[in-house]
Amino acid sequence: MKPYRHILVAVEADEEARRLLARAIELAQQFGAELTVLHVVEPMPLNINGDLGVMPMDLSNESIEQARRWLSPICAAAALEPARLRIELGSITHTILGTAKDLGVDLILIGHHRQRGLAALFSHTDQGVVSKARCDVLAVALTAPAATA
Amino acid sequence: MSLYRHILVALEADEEAHRLLAHGKQLAEKFSAALSAVHVVEPVAADLGGDVGVVPTNISVELSEQSRKLLLPICASHGLIPDQLQILVGPISSSIRDAADDAGADLIVIGHHRHRGLAALFGHTDKGVVGKTHCDVLVVALQAT
């Protein structure tokens, strides 16, 4: 089997992004693979009643900027070029899969949280990614292991 | 750097086992990890009607044996000794989790067919069971690309 050449890691703009990114970098190094970091913002248009003359607020741009403010330093700290971080607006699963296809990645990295169980080991989003991806998907455990009983 | 210490490959009793094992082996070599395999047979109860005097066969045992006969040579061809293959009877996802816990695996490798879907691999009955695994799970795309 060919080693992975391009890894796409899909991060949320949260604390876990650091761990997931650290894992992604380790794997990229091991495989000598390119790494692209993707964060997807789901669009949230907010229309305040137009006939009051209030401008509709678009929270999406705000979310994008917030995500960039959170993720850019984390990526920089990991010595990733800024161009390696992509922040896209769209439906999460669809955008992850679309980006993976466009970039020709051969491994998608996502995080998973233990308490959801293996059947929903993958959240609704992750399950979509796993079931529709054309390439391998690695779900990284983001919950710290419990102390053994 | 040792990212993974023990890789567990979950196999179905089919020819895809070759691909999954080859992949698992490659990863194990790269990470200097131990490698083992597990195949889970879901229990099938068969009641053949005791009052006719026919001894009901235990299908699960037969299936396990058939799987073992199919998988042992495949495993051997990838350098695994019989001890490295475990055949379990039980619900698929929790059995794989248990096998991972027992082995101290930190990476589970499973295959996925786009047409069959992952839902076919993991039963919904397991939803109530809180995931005991804190492993990474690598889902290998098995359909021809």
Describe the structure.
The complex is a heterodimer of chains A (149) and B (145). The N and C termini of chain A lie far apart (39 Å). Chain A is globular and about 45 Å long. Chain A has a five-stranded parallel beta sheet with strand order 5-2-1-6-7, with helices on both faces. With 149 residues, chain A is α/β, with parallel strands linked by helices. Chain A has a single domain (6-44, 57-103, 110-141), classed as HUPs (Rossmann fold, 3-Layer(aba) Sandwich). Helices cover 38% and strands 23% of the residues of chain A. In chain A, helix 3 (92-103) runs parallel beside helix 4 (124-132). In chain B, strand 2, helix 2 and strand 3 (85-89) form a beta-alpha-beta unit. The longest helix of chain B has 19 residues, at 59-77. Chain B has helices at residues 16-31, 59-77, 92-103, and strands at residues 6-11, 34-41, 85-89, 107-112, 136-141. Chain B is α/β, with parallel strands linked by helices. In chain B, strands 3-2-1-4-5 form a five-stranded parallel beta sheet, sandwiched between helices. Chain B has one domain: Rossmann fold (3-Layer(aba) Sandwich). At the A-B interface, helix 1, helix 4 and strand 7 of A face helix 1, helix 3 and strand 5 of B.
